[in-house]
Amino acid sequence: MAEAHQAVAFQFTVTPDGIDLQLSREVLKHIYLSGVTSWKKRAIRFKNGVLTGVYPASPSSWLIVVIAIMSTMYARIDPSRGMIDRIKTSLPVSEFMTVQTQMVLSAILFATGLWLSFIFLLRYILKALLSYHSWIFESHGKMSFSTKIWLVLVKLLSGRRPLLYSFQASLPRLPVPSIDDTIRRYLESVRPLLDDEQYKQMETVANDFKKDPAPKFQKHLKLKSWWATNYVSDWWEEYIYLRGRDPIMVNSNFYTMDLLYVIPTHRQAARAGNVVHAMLQYRRKLERGELTPLRALGIVPMCSFQYERMFNTTRIPGIETGNYIFPIFPDRKHLVVYHRGRFFKVWLYYGGRHLWPSELELQFQRILDDKSEPQPGELKLPSLTAGNRVPWARARLKYFTEGINQASLEAIETAAFFLTLDDEAHGYDPENIRSLDLYAKSLLHGKCYDRWFDKSFTLIVYKNGKIGVNTEHSWADSPIIGHMWEHFSRPLFKNPVEYQHLSNGICFDLKISADKHQNMYRLAMTGAGIDRHLFCLYIVSKVMGIDSPFLKQVLSEPWRLSTSQTPQQQLNLIDIQKFPKYVGAGGGFGPVADDGYGVSYIIVGENLITFHISSKFSSPETDSFRFGQNIRQAMLDIRALFNLKEKM
Fold first, then answer.
1. Membrane-spanning regions, if any (predicted)?
2. What is the C-alpha separation between 411 and 562, in angstroms, rounded?
3. How far apart are alpha carbons 481 and 336 in whole angstroms?
4. Which helix (H) or strand (E) holds 279?
5. ∠ CA 198-204-207 to the nearest 5 degrees?
6. Are β-strands 18-23 and 608-614 bridged in parallel, bridged antiparallel, or unpaired?
7. How far apart are CA 468 and CA 482, in angstroms?
8. What are φ and ψ of residue 534, in 5° steps?
9. Where are the alpha helices (DSSP H) in 325-388?
10. Catalytic residue annotation
11. Burial 479-491 (b: 16+ CB within 10 A, else e)
């Protein structure tokens, strides 16, 4: 790894009287400033930890309760119904603990207990309110009276300025759906895909499973749901992601694009400097827990757990299963940059502060101007993270456990994130119909050796100033990386196709399907989706050693069409109707099956919908370009039908 020359903190000379240390005053100044900054961070984290721990109350409310209780005591009114006296009798009497001191301390202890009880009560009420799901199933633009009352209550109990993790203790547990509901919904979903004979056979094995052994498996899942806040997440991460032995490039990682029409600057180093600085500011807020939590309708809080592994995190391969380097050292102050086959370790702080964008630009420009050749084995080293997990795990154990290799790998894996200064230019070109395809391919896999696919995310900055991100999927879903992206970018997404609010203009089957699809994803949003439940039942069956023909058949079915909808404008930073040039191009992912499609679709405002479609060249049955043209034609047909109805 190419290391930057670093200043020496001190000099020493050997004399007959011993070693004479000559400390550098400038370096000592920076050491002092770094220490001050570190203690400031700890103080802020402690303060925010207290604020989060007592939310939705506040520390000042404790003082109000104490003053109120003390006031009643001096008015000779006992609101505790004798509890303060009982606390007082349990306190020892000494020269330091007078009767008066006992009375005051007893009142403070009672007030504190009352205050904590009030906090737990508020959290319980908020948790009960957040278990209400009817609002999700109401038609767009319509809201029932009960939902309006519910929203008011949630808003009142949510406090005024919640921090990122303020709602974590108030979120309800993920409910376990009933066996009957899951099987019924599964059969409904596969009915259009099976002929009568196949469906009858599936119905038979499903009903047999429902009688036995499903009830045994369900009991274990319910037990886990009482113990863990989410009965799915740890198993999903372990068995779907970390135990997978296939390459994570294309098969798991996903990408996010830059703004579609706007490039703030065409200078590669300048764009990199600005984006990296913005990410460091975001990381500082994240570490302190000062980010605003994501909230549906601007009110209903979302879980913030996945944010914890955004920075300084790397997925580590194993022979049988993988694991993570967690952000145990969140204060690591460096970034690893890859350019033309060389690795550079870039320091991000100076004198206890973030480097300014201009300072970062200078460092990146020096890297771009560096004409040195890669060291032996350096050029395609990242390709190890692109291939099968087992060879990478074995190579890691064999070649990266000592010496310079170990130190270099540790620098990569503990870095804030990975940055590639790409030597290609990409982005939307209206004169090149394939420009966005090439842009997407570059973000998804690049040259297969110029992204560190194990890193939580790789930031790619192209030579024309365009940017993008390749994200390792196991640590988070796309809304989390999108939240960060919108902080320093603007709305993201590809090949725009206009559409109207379709449900008002369709009275055909292109509406029955849409309504059914909406109901299914709303069920999934409320914890009643079928795939996670069936997956967890299967894990229980394997642990118990009980074979289930139904579960085996369900989970072995090929999923040739994998779709995902990415939320847009989570932060409402800009009105894209007024500033349409600031629309983004979104993101996408690879197909799940070798002969299938991966489709990411994003609804942007009221007049724009975008699609990212991927398939593998190795399959003669798939053609993502043709698939995209069919979708586009379908959208145009729907618009024509809508216009026809308006004329009628």
1. 60-77, 104-126
2. 36
3. 19
4. helix 268-288
5. 140
6. unpaired
7. 11
8. -65, -40
9. 357-369
10. 473
11. ebbbbbbbbbbbb
Taking the C-alpha atoms of residue 311 and residue 327, their distance in angstroms, rounded to an integer, is 7
185-194 long-range contacts, Cβ below 8 Å, gap at least 24?
185/520, 185/523, 185/528, 185/530, 186/530, 186/534, 186/554, 189/520, 189/530
pLDDT-above-70 percentage for the chain: 88
pLDDT at 31: 66
Q: Which of 1, 43, 89 has the alpha carbon at shortest distance from 339?
A: 1
Indicate if the alpha-carbon torsion angle 112, 118, 122, 128 is positive or negative. positive
| Helix (H) or strand (E) segment spanning residue 221 | helix 214-227
Q: How far apart are CA 480 and CA 304, in angstroms?
A: 9
Indicate the pLDDT class of residue 78, thresholds 50, 70 and 90.
confident
* pLDDT at site 9: 37
Q: Choose among 463, 40, 480: nearest CA to 471.
A: 480
pLDDT of residue 523: 86
What are the φ/ψ torsions at residue 399 (nearest 5 degrees)?
A: -115, -10
Q: What does the radius of gyration of the chain's CA atoms come to, in whole angstroms? A: 29
CB-based contacts of 638, cutoff 8 Å, min separation 6: 499, 502, 505, 506, 510
588 within 8 A of 612, measured Cβ to Cβ: yes
Note the residue count of the chain. 648
Helices (H), 4-131: 25-54, 59-74, 83-90, 99-130
Q: Which of 182, 289, 306, 238 is nearest to 554 (CA)?
A: 182
Q: How many CA atoms lie within 13 A of 310 on its CB side?
A: 25
Which is nearest to 642 in space by CA: 497, 506, 498?
506
More confident residue, 400 or 35: 400
| Alpha helices (H) in 472-529, listed in sequence order | 478-488, 512-525
pLDDT, averaged across the chain: 85
Tokens of 119: 């906090």
Q: Tell which residue, 631, 589, 626, has the closest CA to residue 609.
A: 631
pLDDT score at 8: 36
Q: Structure pTM?
A: 0.86
Q: For residue 443, give Cα distances in angstroms to 120, 133, 489.
A: 46, 37, 17
What does the alpha-carbon distance between residue 279 and residue 416 come to, in Å, rounded to a whole number?
Answer: 10
Query: 628 or 325: whose pLDDT is higher?
Result: 628
Q: Phi first, then psi: what are they for 138, rounded to 5°?
A: -80, 150
Helices 196-211 + 179-190 axis angle, to 10: 170
Statement: residue 394 has pLDDT above 60: yes
What span, in angstroms and rounded, lies between the C-alpha atoms of 504 and 645? Answer: 10
Give the residue among 461, 241, 460, 417 at the shortest CA–CA distance from 314: 417
Report how far residue 450's alpha carbon sits from residue 447's, in angstroms, rounded to the nearest whole number: 6
List C-alpha distances in Å: 310 to 419, 422, 453, 475: 14, 22, 14, 8
Q: Is 507's pLDDT higher than 50?
A: no
